[in-house]
Design goal:
five-stranded parallel beta sheet, 149 residues, 5 helices, single chain, alpha/beta, 17% strand, Rossmann fold
Length: 149
Amino acid sequence: METGDACGFVPFKDKHSDSDIRNILSNNKVVCVVGASDTPGKDAHDVPSYLMSKGYTIIPVNPNHQKVLGVDSYKSINDVTQKVDIVEIFRPSSEVYKIVQDSIKKHPKVIWMQEGIYDKKAVDIAEKDGITVIFNRCMYKEHLRLFGV
């Protein structure tokens, strides 16, 4: 399977160890959230909200919102001017390849595809550019599991 299915089901996840994930979450604090939402109860809102509460800087990208979590939102990742450590993707797998192409121009250290999100071609081009790729994992769940409350 090249991408997640229509329901967002991906039957596998990346091969990174707990140590790898702990290192990524400890050393990369600026997270560009593509598909960030201003609607409480949606993962694309609650995950970045949690990360903010843990000291991460969130850069929302959503063309439909001027602000998300009180932070100015960008229409596209191409519009982001700040340095980005992690690009966190909350968009369907079918949109991931284009997002990753644009993300590579920002030179992030990590591309993180949330649970149910995967595109093999996107993984391949990011890794070819030296970017670590995490997929089919939730940053909130991984942070909570590895660092506790």
